[in-house]
Design a protein that fits this description.
heterodimer; A: alpha/beta; Alpha-Beta Plaits; FAD/NAD(P)-binding domain; 3 domains; five-stranded parallel sheet; 21 helices; about 15% strand; globular; B: alpha/beta; Rossmann fold; eight-stranded mixed sheet; about 30% helix
Chain lengths: ~625, ~350
């Protein structure tokens, strides 16, 4: 009988356990880079933020341009899905000002054109038509032109850019910025046919194109046709996006003093702020939903309030009031939000008296819709019950294999960055289609994982974690901006402030890569980790394992990195949730079982697709 | 190399009874070698103090010289500290304890600091049963001077340079038991599950609590042939028991097999619950402990866990019958009671 019994943890190993994490899957580390993962175009955010910190603005711009095509535009107007995803909001309050840092790269870039494809580009003998000149079509053009496609772009306006030109006001996006970035693409030898409204897709298909891309957006603004008084007051009622386009193309130059803007989205914010610049003195935004649930981005609402615009929430429009054939205002019913147990909202009347609000003009900005009157229904292109084309979500191909959709015209109104992402996917499909290949057999994303070790305890990225609060972007004086519709409100970060803001980035792409075979289980990483992410414990099923960590891993959107079984029978489990990527685990690791490795992820773009080399027989 | 730890912590870090998170018990970022066992022991002290809801200002850390003696910088950053002369930590701790008996004293020492230059101090502080926790971070080598064998290096252990140690090792745990230490435990830096409750129990022991913790030196003594390497210790470790430190009178939840479970009541009403793995051993019987240690040594095994505990002997303050108020809190009126009182005292000697 043994004198003493071994008490090793392996004796109490449960039967059901988590499998070791497959970090070879490109999406595993991609997901850790929260900002990049949240971005529809998957722009490598930390990569360009580090370039901005190093004042390498041209390179930072090009990282963006490769991925999102319009860095200058997006650095001012993006919906920034990356920012709420930023890891920083899980350890403090505000995310890194990713969007405005992008603008810094655009504002300070040098000669970027030398890094772009240079014409004349050799032809591959194929011809593509792009209908609509917005971000989706321009992205397709940018991706396909270098491959030698002859590209014909049709747009009804006099210049390219689509809604970026017609709907985003100049005080948010100066025309020069837009023109520059549109021209980078058009200069690739795109055949533009502006001021050309395409009346028939059939005609286009008969024009001998190898493929057609439809990027016509969601051009129809919603109206309130049944509201009493709508017809009588028609002269003083405008559809928001049409009115904004009128302003952009200088058909509309003024507005009355008292304006009501209906709607709570970003278009409503653009309408009210533009009204202030065209003569609107008392501009009110009236919206059905509560203020906090309005669709407009919080910063857009803030900017509107700053320009003395009154936002009246919980008001449902009842009628346009007309006196002597002239609009005098609108009547609204007061409502309050009521939520059922599923959190679903209902707006119920408060029983208070209806409210009359005076107005000389009303702008309706309550949403926009797709409209395809120019697409024949007998050309093999199916439409669903809502009048939307049937489009494959991966390939963006319609049921007519030659026709591809992207941007708002594919799945309804979203935003510029989504349109760009669609453009990349569609371009890949178009290229595969034109090569006679399977559009579903899509190339994997490009990934790269490189150690950042520069010495025993040195990393080639700045691993220290700044505690600075988010820096505020300075704005031009209100007295100036309200006078001139074209005067940009935001001034952008200066380089010194931009540097400080870059240091808030946690470098989430510097991955903590764990090599089991090297680990001696000294627990140094577990002890040093400032955010208690690492635990060495007995393996279990995921829900149980999540609870068994030093701090339970309750954020289920974040993965666990689980190692193979170690010598003592335990596994290393890392909760990716609040990892600061400070590199301390790797610095305190005596055997380099932990290493900080930079993960680069680029979605496949048509212009980067490599024709496979013929196999050499051994 | 990072010298500062990021200030952000996990937003859901648990809080103890005082409302503190573990952050309040941490020290500066360690400058010891990456993977040093000492850092694990520091982390175990942090965890033990956090879980016991110790008020950081009621703890003093006293150390001598050596890698181990640097560690007080790396834990309990909000507590008092004194980095003393090589091997003289026990004297400083004795003085501090005499002045203020209300503090928790952590003496942190190494095998060089305790088993060589400070051996005289070590044996006398045991003899006096000073109320303190005395931790030896034992790596069997002089890590700060490039890894020469120390007095606790096992005979036959091979150094990183290849030389074999010809001398017998001083077994600090056996020595402490021989000298009558009232709480003797042995553990391994790589086993926090065992180490943390041991530290908690040691803090509650009224008297001298000795913890000999094997702590591999990753830089100079983690090579094949060394008997203080992570691999060797893991292979040769033998726990006497699993141990729970129970801060309050608990309801009994687990029924341990009869004869295998022991409870040791501490002075302050806390309990140590021992689930014995070793059969021929009784933690309250010095002879059986000495035997167990000898047995283990012949089998090249490292016996860990709580080896011996004696709660009956008085600590130094008890032996000296010092007053219940700590000396540093006595006011002038109490310290100098005046000529009348002096006369009375003198009269007592006539």
């Amino acid at each position: 009988m043994p004198f003493f019994i071994k008490n090793q943890v392996s004796d109490i190993k449960p039967i059901l356990t988590m499998k070791p994490t497959n970090t070879k899957d490109p999406e595993y580390y991609h997901k850790v880079v929260d900002c990049q993962y949240a971005c529809p175009a998957h722009t490598p955010v930390p990569e360009y933020i580090r370039l901005i910190a190093a004042e390498r603005f041209t390179e930072a711009y090009m990282v963006n341009w490769e991925s999102n095509v319009f860095p200058g535009v997006l650095g001012r107007t993006c919906d920034r899905p990356c920012e709420p995803a930023c890891r920083r909001v899980r350890v403090e309050e505000e995310p890194v000002a990713i969007c405005r840092l992008k603008r810094v790269a655009a504002d300070n870039k040098g000669d970027v054109k030398q890094h772009m494809p240079q014409g004349p580009l050799p032809s591959n003998g194929k011809k593509i038509a792009l209908i609509g000149g917005g971000p989706a079509s321009l992205t397709v053009a940018r991706d396909l032109a270098p491959l030698g496609y002859e590209i014909h772009l049709f747009d009804e306006q006099k210049a390219g850019g689509g809604m970026m030109r017609s709907q985003i006001p100049s005080f948010r996006l100066p025309e020069e910025v837009l023109n520059e970035e549109v021209n980078f693409i058009l200069d690739l030898g795109i055949h533009t046919q502006f001021l050309t409204y395409v009346k028939s897709l059939k005609d286009v298909l008969e024009g001998g194109y190898d493929a057609v891309f439809v990027g016509t957006g969601a051009p129809k603004g919603r109206d309130l046709p049944k509201l009493p008084g709508r017809k009588e007051a028609d002269k003083n009622i405008h559809i928001g996006i049409e009115w904004l386009a009128g302003v952009a193309f200088e058909h509309t130059k003024s507005i009355a003093q008292k304006v009501i803007v209906l709607g709570g989205g970003n278009t409503a914010m653009d309408c009210c702020r533009t009204s202030r610049r065209l003569g609107g003195k008392e501009v009110k935004v009236v919206v059905r939903s509560p203020f906090d649930e309005m669709k407009a981005s919080p910063w857009e609402k803030e900017d509107a309030l700053h320009e003395d615009i009154n936002i009246i929430d919980n008001h449902v429009p009842l009628s346009f009031e007309v006196k002597d054939g002239k609009l005098i205002g609108m009547k609204f019913q007061k409502v309050k939000p009521v939520y059922d147990e599923n959190g679903k909202r209902q707006l119920l009347p408060t029983e208070e008296d209806d409210v009359f609000i005076e107005a000389d003009e009303v702008l309706i900005a309550i949403g926009q819709e797709n409209s395809f009157p120019w697409i024949e229904r007998n050309i093999g292109l199916e439409f669903d019950q809502w009048g939307m084309p049937v489009v494959d979500e991966t390939t963006f191909q319609s049921t007519n294999p030659k026709v591809f959709f992207g941007g708002d015209s594919a799945f309804g109104p979203k935003n510029v960055i989504t349109a760009v992402a669609h453009g990349h996917h569609a371009a890949v499909s178009i290229h595969l289609f034109c090569e006679g290949l399977d559009v579903y057999d899509r190339p994997s994303p490009y990934t790269n994982l490189v150690s950042q070790k520069m010495g025993i305890h040195e990393w080639s990225y700045d691993s220290s974690v700044a505690i600075d609060q988010r820096y505020i972007v300075p704005q031009a004086k209100k007295s100036q901006t309200l006078k001139d519709r074209k005067k940009e409100v935001e001034l952008g970060f200066d380089i010194a402030t931009a540097y400080k803001e870059t240091q808030r980035c946690l470098n989430c792409d510097a991955q903590t890569v764990f090599t089991e075979d090297r680990c001696i289980e000294c627990d140094a990483c577990m002890d040093v980790c400032p955010t208690s992410c690492i635990t060495f414990t007995v393996n279990a099923e995921e829900p149980e394992l999540r609870q068994n960590l030093l701090v339970p891993a309750e954020n289920l959107t974040q993965d666990l990195l689980v190692s193979k079984e170690l010598k003592t029978g335990r596994v290393m489990v890392k909760d990716e949730d609040v990892c600061l990527h400070c590199g301390l685990c790797a610095e305190r690791c005596p055997t380099s079982a932990w290493d900080m490795q930079k993960f680069l992820y680029n979605t496949t773009k048509a212009n980067q697709m490599i024709t496979p080399l013929p196999l050499i027989e051994k | 190399m990072s010298y500062l730890k990021p200030l952000f912590r996990h937003p859901k870090l648990p809080k103890n009874k005082l409302g503190y998170t573990q952050k309040e018990y941490e020290g500066s970022l360690s400058t010891l070698c990456a993977g040093c066992g000492h850092d694990s022991i520091s982390a175990a002290i942090v965890q033990a103090c956090f879980e016991m809801s110790v008020e950081p200002h009621k703890v003093a850390k006293i150390s001598g010289i050596g890698c181990s003696s640097k560690t007080p910088t790396y834990f309990l950053g909000n507590s008092h500290g004194f980095n003393s002369v090589h091997g003289r930590m026990p004297s400083v701790a004795t003085g501090a304890s005499m002045a203020n008996k209300d503090m928790v004293y952590f003496g942190v020492s190494g095998d060089g600091d305790s088993a060589s230059i400070g051996m005289g101090q070590f044996v006398h502080v045991i003899r006096r049963n000073l109320n303190m926790v005395y931790i030896v971070m034992n790596n069997g080598c002089y890590g700060l001077t490039k890894g020469q064998d120390s007095a606790t290096a096992d005979q036959g252990s091979r150094s990183k340079a290849g030389s074999v140690n010809p001398f017998q090792a001083i077994d600090l745990a056996s020595l402490a038991i021989e000298l009558g230490a009232t709480f003797v435990a042995q553990s391994f830096s790589g086993d926090k599950q065992q180490l943390v409750p041991l530290i908690k129990a040691a803090m509650h022991h009224k008297g001298f609590a000795f913890l000999n913790v094997i702590s591999p030196c990753v830089t100079f003594n983690n090579n094949p042939g060394s008997t203080k390497s992570y691999d060797y210790v893991r292979e040769h470790i033998e726990a006497t028991s699993t141990l729970d430190f129970v801060p309050e009178m608990p309801e009994i939840k687990t029924n341990y097999e009869k004869g295998k479970s022991t409870r040791v009541a501490m002075h302050d009403g806390t309990l140590i619950q021992l689930n014995k793995l070793a059969t021929d051993w009784n933690p309250e019987d010095r002879v059986s402990v000495a035997n167990a240690l000898q047995h283990a040594r012949t089998k090249n095994e490292i016996l860990t866990g709580l080896l011996y505990v004696n709660t009956e002997w008085k600590d130094l303050h008890g032996t000296l019958s010092t007053c219940s108020t700590p000396l540093n809190k006595l006011k002038e009126a109490e310290l100098c009671p005046g000529t009348e009182a002096l006369k009375e005292i003198n009269a007592g000697y006539r």
